[in-house]
Amino acid sequence: MSRYTQFALFTVIFVQFAWPLPKSKQESPSEEICAGTICLHLGMPQSEALSALSAEYDVKKVSEDKDDTGYILTNKKDNSHVVMNLSAADGKLKYISKDWSPAEDTAPAMMEAIYSLASHLAAGQQVPCTMEARASKETDADVKGVFLTCGGKYIRMELITVKGEPGVQLQEVLQASDFGR
Q: Is the Cβ–Cβ distance between 34 and 52 less than 8 Å?
């Protein structure tokens, strides 16, 4: 398993169980996150989303408990890069995140990715945004994150150090207000 996939799996588990995420100011069903030609929204039927995504991506179940089921999506040709994380409860999508992390691990590449994502998020929105910084230290991991929330979406920018190995993550996220609380 690649180091990037290990970071992604750690994040899925950490996000779902350990770190409560910022609450969006509003939850709008018209807000969506797209992977390729497939656009997802909160409340979308899980079966419909997984069926559509399976045509373009490998979909793997990574967690399941009484409250929700988590999935990761990877490219069919190169499954070392996680494209999206999803969680569903009661047959509906409750959490959707798309990875925008650059393939090249340099400061200019990360800044370009942050600018691209922020421009994408701000396009056509006339809503105020808030910013929050958080840090968490676990036994094997240290996470420092900045969250930029605009309307029903937020950007999560994180520096994750697992067993002394640093990695960065940049995600666009939609999350139901009752998810992970």
A: no
Tokens, residue 3: 């180091």
Tell which residue, 111, 110, 101, has the closest CA to residue 3.
101
Torsion of CA 69, 29, 20, 1, to 10 degrees: 50
Nearest to 180 by CA among 9, 19, 69, 71: 19
- pLDDT tens, position by position, 39-75: 999 999 999 999 999 999 999 999 998 889 999 999 9
Please report whether residue 180 resides in a domain. Answer: no
Is 125 a domain residue?
A: yes
**Where residue 180 falls among pLDDT bands split at 50, 70, 90?**
low
Q: How many residues does the chain have?
A: 181
Query: Total structural domains in the chain?
Result: 1
Report the C-alpha gap between 37 and 89 in whole angstroms.
24
Q: CA dist 94 to 9, 38, 121, 127, Å?
A: 18, 17, 19, 22
Average pLDDT over residues 117-133: 80
Residue 156 is part of which domain span?
3-175
Q: Is 181 a member of any domain?
A: no
Query: Which residue is associated with the tokens 């697992």?
Result: 162
Q: Hey, what are 75's tokens? A: 């490219």
Q: Model's pTM, two decimal places?
A: 0.76
Residue 36: count other Cβ atoms within 10 Å of its Cβ.
13
